[in-house]
Amino acid sequence: MAGEVKLTANIPAKVKGINFLWRLCAIVFYISYLCVQINNISNGHFSESPWKSIISTITHASEIKYPDIIIGINILWGICGIIFICMFITILPHFIILFLKEIVFVIFALISMFTILFSGTVPKGMWNFMTKYIRHLYYVSAWLLNFGGKYPKFDGKVDPDQPLQIEFVRPDKWVNIIGLLRMCGIVLLILLPHFIMYIFWAIWVIISIVIGMIIGLFTGKWNKVFSKMIVSFMRFRIRIICYAFCITDTYPPLHGKE
Predict the structure, then answer these.
(1) Residue 255, in any domain of the structure
(2) Residue 33 included in any domain
(3) pTM
(4) How does DSSP assign 174-202, residue by residue?
(5) Residue 139: other Cβ atoms inside 10 A
(6) CA–CA separation, 29 vs 18, rounded Å?
């Protein structure tokens, strides 16, 4: 068996609509901030940190002689920034842990390429760590998307309370030559069609997230069309990761179906 990864989603029929509002505010702030900074950099100006932008926006909005509507927009933008900071602080411990795990994940993947080449297998301890890292990453993503799960744990173990369930099937034996292809970077060429598709699909997914959250703000649930699109993309992405980083030897299909 070449091994495989299965991702299933169980998004509750109802989720807290107010949580969509917090996430939408954070998204609006972050996207607008990036647009402003890109414009500043293109004009040769040094970018300002988001924290300073928020403070100056709120404290000086009423001091600048702009029309009231512009002042109101500036204040709303600052409030969105505060919400962004609160969400960032809430999930920051996970970002730190995931960053540290990712370093180990990459090291283990590199070692696995050699072990696959010479022995056709990956040490079980390494394989278990890498699968837990991916599961942790996806649990955090589900929380950020307001898929209805509890605040994720840090260990990456199977959690039945999470809306995304990921099952990893360990290969009986890896193909030695594929380990060599990964070491030489040739696997990047093999996955080139996936990377091209990934770029275009990711753009549509970003749009789907924003539209889906706006709808969820009023309905208190994820629209099935948009949630299905997002989950399919996540399934497509996890298969690429698992193939490229030695977790499975199953070549990922060019779709996100189960």
Answers:
(1) no
(2) no
(3) 0.83
(4) --HHHHHHHHHTHHHHHTHHHHHHHHHHH
(5) 28
(6) 17
Mean of per-residue pLDDT scores for the chain: 81
Residue 236: Cβ within 10 Å count: 22
From the CB of residue 39, how many other CB atoms can be counted at a distance below 10 Å?
Answer: 11
Q: Are 46 and 40 in contact (CB under 8 A)?
A: yes
pLDDT for the residue numbered 233: 94
Write the pLDDT tens digit of every residue in 228-239: 999 999 999 999
Q: Which of 43-52, 148-157, 224-233 has the weakest average pLDDT?
A: 43-52
Q: What is the pLDDT of residue 95?
A: 93
Contact between 237 and 198 (Cβ < 8 Å) = yes
For residues 120 and 144, the answer to whether their CB atoms sit within 8 Å is: no
pLDDT level of residue 201 (50, 70, 90 thresholds)? very high
Taking alpha carbons only, the member of 179, 180, 142, 178 closest to residue 161 is 142
Q: Find out whether 120 and 89 touch, Cβ atoms under 8 Å.
A: no
CB proximity list for 189: less than 8 A, separation 6 or greater:
none
Q: Is 74 contained in some domain?
A: no
CA distance 5 to 43: 46
Give me the number of domains the chain comprises: 1
108: left (phi over 0), alpha (psi -120 to 50) or beta: alpha
Confirm whether 233 is domain-assigned.
Answer: yes
Provide the domain limits for residue 236: 4-16+92-244
